[in-house]
Write a structure and sequence with these properties.
Jelly Rolls; 4-stranded antiparallel β-sheet; globular; single chain
Length: 135
Amino acid sequence: MTGTKYDNLFTNDCVVRSEVIGMSMITTRKMEGFGEGNFSMDCFYVTYSKVFGEAPHRHSFAQYMCFLSANPVDTGDFDAEVEVHLGDEGEKHVITSPILAYIPAGLSHGPLIFARIGKPVLFLDIATVGKYSRL
């Protein structure tokens, strides 16, 4: 698709290898000017136990964390345990089924612990901002 009127509405610059997670992922974090610039997303498959964000942190924007089955035939097929820690007190929530978590702007969160992975988890981290940053 080159030379057409709406070429600027498409990009394949979203597939990158992340040094943080050590695998390929879909991300818009390096494309803050794409579209209207108010959307940031990371998307990857978690296939082994891993800790993300050892220390709690905050953002000046809202964030959505989506923990989904990676089984395209059965979206309810979730065989994992994920720990999400929220607030300054580190309140622990254990995820054992597909779920969306809303993290309001300013709410401390982390670490995010993929404690047990029986089957791959599709993880989407969506922020309502063009440039992802931590406070």
